[in-house]
Amino acid sequence: MTITRYGEEGAEASGRPQGTVMTMAFQLDGQDFTALNGGPYFKFTEAISFVVNCESQDEIDYYWEKLSGGGDEKAQQCGWLKDKYGVSWQIVPASLGELLNDADPDKSRRVMKALLGMKKIDIETLKRASGRQGPV
Questions:
Q1: Which of 110, 111, 95 is nearest to 60 (CA)?
Q2: Pick from 82, 87, 68, 80: nearest CA to 115
Q3: What's the pTM?
Q4: Pairing mode, if any, of strands 49-54 and 88-93?
Q5: If DSSP states are collapsed to H, E and C, what string results for the chain?
Q6: 50 forms bridges with which residues in the sheet?
Q7: Closest CA to 78 of 115, 126, 124
Q8: pLDDT tens, 16-50?
């Protein structure tokens, strides 16, 4: 992790106190990220979100619990939630794309209809909507 702090010039230009964190470069699962402490000028929105592709319902439940803080008050439609910092996450089954893009358009529509009725995603409900049984 690499941290850059606001110096005198940057602090003056940004309105952030000198010495506070300006940027933080880090890596998650091999992917590089840089976070900018822009202060009150920049807000988190759903335009940026992290996707967690889960292989099982247990995995969905685990990440949902950890990131939502155990409650659904920050839950949004279709597996989206906001964590305690206001960052948006999508906690989805890895098979979601396959289920939504079935060669049979009726199956895809049923899956989308089921998905739109969910906050935390239930894999079995999506599989039933698609008419599939067993692993996807």
A1: 95
A2: 80
A3: 0.72
A4: parallel
A5: CEEEECCHHHHHHHCCCCCCEEEEEEEECCEEEEEECCHHHCCCCCCCEEEEEECCHHHHHHHHHHHHCCCCCCECHHHEEECCCCCEEEEEECCHHHHHCCCCHHHHHHHHHHHHCCCCCCHHHHHHHHCCCCCC
A6: 89
A7: 115
A8: 889 999 889 988 888 888 888 877 777 777 778 88
